[in-house]
What we know:
mainly alpha, 3-stranded antiparallel beta sheet
Amino acid sequence: MTGDHAGKLGKLLGPLGAEILTVLWRAGRPLSVRQVQERLNQGRADPLAYTTVMTVLSRLAARNVLCRSAVGRGFIYEPTVADVAELAVRDVIRDHGVAAVAHFVDQCQTEPHLRSRLMRLVQGEPEPG
């Protein structure tokens, strides 16, 4: 992840939330609290406590940034968003609803390439090669 994306992700989720989501994206599969903690603590001078990681994972799940599934006596976590842009869009729509969508469409009207892509997406057409 580039520094720019990491900075944006940190603004949306806080620094530890951003680190955790990055760990899960890189893993490409659901991870337990312990697995996330181990990956976060690699090369860290002051290791994070299990409960700290568990708390942030739970908060991210409550915000629907992660989904969690019960496995044995614990949970595994995986992202519900593919990237920073999807997370930002979800937050804007959650906070501003239909008005945000209307403004987005208005902005697309001024950019021909965005407008044509939006029309293809709305019509369910596949993205060009």
